[in-house]
Design brief:
The protein has no helices and eleven strands. The strands form two sheets. Strands 2, 4, 5, 6, 9, 10 and 11 form a seven-stranded mixed beta sheet that branches. Strands 1-3-8-7 form a four-stranded antiparallel beta sheet, with no helix packed on it. The protein is an all-beta fold. The radius of gyration is 13 Å and the shape is globular.
């Protein structure tokens, strides 16, 4: 199993970013996928989850209406579209496959003016 995140960076408050997670080593379309984040000094928290076959989504209350999780099963890629970003969204964002308890290396998102 391999997960490679990309798309993080520095963005001003109110801005947007789209994270990507390229997956390999397993049948991507068959499994649910999640995005987690960990801010400095805080525990890692679930941001969003999407199921495998039907693409049902769930979100943390803190990101509902601002973030959108999606997947392209043909490209074996998971996405997280993040809009209306605030400094509280600053964290390392991780891609995660619950079925295999496997994490990506993470990508830093910093929201600052």
């Amino acid at each position: 199993v391999q997960l490679v995140e990309s798309g993080g960076g520095l963005v001003q408050p109110g801005g947007s970013l789209r994270l990507s997670c390229a997956a390999s080593g397993f049948t991507f379309s068959s499994y649910g996928m999640s995005w987690y984040r960990q801010a400095p000094g805080k525990e890692r928290e679930l941001v969003a989850h999407i199921t495998g076959n039907h693409g049902y989504t769930t979100y943390a209350d803190s990101v509902k209406g601002r973030f959108t999780i999606s997947r392209d099963n043909a490209k074996n890629t998971l996405y997280l579209q993040m809009n209306s970003l605030t400094p509280e969204d600053t964290a390392v964002y991780y891609c995660y496959v619950p079925r295999f308890t496997f994490w990506g290396q993470g990508t830093q998102v910093t929201v600052s003016s």
